[in-house]
Amino acid sequence: MNFEIYTDRAKGFVQAAQNLALREGHQQFSAEHLLKVLLDDQEGLAAGLIERAGGRPKAALQAVEKALASRPKVSGGGAGQLYMAPEMARVFDTAE
Length: 96
Known about the structure:
The protein is mainly α. The chain is built from 5 helices and 2 strands; from the N terminus they run H-E-H-H-H-E-H.
C-alpha cells in the first residue's frame, strides 16, 4: 500500500479506522472499520452517497456497528498488534 499517494483527508480516515480497530481490541483492520469512520464523518459524504443511491445511512451504520461488535477481541499480550484483513488489502489495491 502506497500511503503517500492518498490525500490528507483519506489518510485521516484510514488512521481513524486503524485507531478504531485498536480501541475495540480487534486484531484485523477491516473494511468495516473504514466504513464506520466514513459513516461517522461530520461532513456526511458517505451517508449522503448512500442516501442519494436510495439507501438508508442509519441502517448501514447500525449494520456496520453490529458487524464490528461481533468481531473477536484480543487482550493481553496480543493486543496492540494490527493486521490488515485480506479484503481490506483488496480495497486498497483496487483504489490504487
